[in-house]
Specification:
single chain, 367 residues, mainly beta, six-stranded antiparallel β-sheet, 4 helices
Length: 367
């Protein structure tokens, strides 16, 4: 039931807030839960596969959490906007993973063009992933136009092209694009700035090696409903009728776009994301697949998992008379408050639990 909270100053005017927490690879197998305000942004068992002994976990603070949970405090005569960041084990275990070295809240103002209405914009087969073309803008979760599946350098969100990263056909000398074992960007058009509907990534030598044609991308996303827009090309007359499948969490794969046109025309599908992850798999019976771009927009995003919001002392998801009764028992010393209930008790966010919090809780109920 142990936990601790840091009150962290934030720049509320920044387009993006990213929480950085340093964790240890040696703690793989241990659990950790990180709550920002009243929302759980990370919960689970550590399973880091990188080489660093100490690594950086990045968490983007959702807009709804910022709106609901940032509050002002005065310290040494100066007013600050702050967020409470709480750490605990995830579930009933003896010891949590450790938070070590550094913990900081980064105010990010992207130097690249981005659009808050877009989750991800992927310019598939882009030969310079650091630049945008025309009026294109990146999404809130990606800082480059394409990457191999992994954590984004800026946002920390995990996304990208899923394939063996080995450049077995030695394409990397052609451009700054991404060349993998089974996919290539168009090596005949390597100039930067090509329109997203005219550049493409294709299935390199899959047909020749009797490999079922496939292109796969993965994206970490808050749970909710998303619109998926794509476009396909057919430069060699052998890339007809691709089908797009989507899977999320532990759900089964389902087709969201069938027999897509291959003339650069945009096509759309819709998908429900659960478990914080989305996988897009493109398949075809033809000799090749050529995908131009992927544009993911939120339709309806669920709020981050809320546990123990201010006043919800019994953590049942609602502020009710039962919470008043429990708070009274705590103030009288009849009941012991455990774990994160203390956050819910501190209704005034002044780090003191007293009758003034009880009075504010009653006022919340009356309103």
């Amino acid at each position: 039931g142990g936990w601790f909270t840091y009150r962290m100053a934030v720049d509320d005017s920044a387009p993006m807030l990213v929480l950085h927490a340093k964790l240890r690879k040696a703690d793989n197998g241990k659990t950790l839960r990180i709550r920002v305000g009243d929302a759980i942004l990370y919960a689970g068992t550590l399973d880091y596969s990188g080489t660093e002994e100490v690594y950086d976990l990045k968490l983007v603070v959702p807009d709804d959490v910022r709106t609901r949970c940032i509050y002002p405090v005065t310290a040494d005569g100066t007013e600050h906007n702050v967020l409470d960041v709480t750490f605990s084990a995830d579930g009933t275990v003896v010891e949590s993973a450790k938070v070590c070295d550094f913990l900081y809240m980064e105010a990010v103002t992207p130097l690249y063009d981005n659009d808050s209405s877009i989750a991800y914009f992927v310019d598939c087969g882009d030969h310079n992933t650091d630049t945008l073309s025309g009026r294109d803008k990146l999404g809130m979760y990606n800082s480059v136009t394409e990457q191999l599946y992994g954590a984004d350098e800026v946002t920390g969100c995990v996304w990208g092209l899923i394939d063996d990263p080995t450049d077995q056909y030695n394409g990397s000398g052609k451009s700054k694009g991404i060349y993998t074992a089974n996919t290539w960007p168009d090596e005949f058009q390597t100039a930067d700035g090509t329109d997203k509907a005219k550049s493409y990534r294709y299935t390199k030598n899959q047909y020749e090696n009797d490999i079922a044609r496939h292109l796969d991308y993965g994206f970490s996303l808050p749970d909710g409903t998303y619109s998926i827009e794509m476009a396909f090309a057919d430069p060699w007359g052998c890339s007809k009728n691709p089908t797009v499948y989507a899977s999320s969490g532990t759900g089964k794969e389902a087709a969201i776009i069938t027999n897509a046109p291959t003339d650069g025309t945009a096509v759309k599908g819709e998908v429900e994301v659960t478990g914080g992850e989305l996988k897009i798999s493109i398949r075809s019976e033809d000799k090749a697949i050529n995908i131009c771009y992927i544009l993911i927009r939120p339709v309806e995003v669920k709020a981050a998992s809320v546990v123990g919001c201010k006043g919800d002392v019994n953590k049942d998801g609602a502020v009710t008379v039962a919470d008043v009764v429990l708070m009274q028992k705590y103030l009288l010393g009849v009941k012991q408050i455990i774990g994160e209930q203390a956050y819910a008790l501190d209704v005034l966010s002044d780090a003191e639990l007293n009758i003034f919090d009880l009075a504010m809780l009653k006022r919340i109920l009356l309103n």
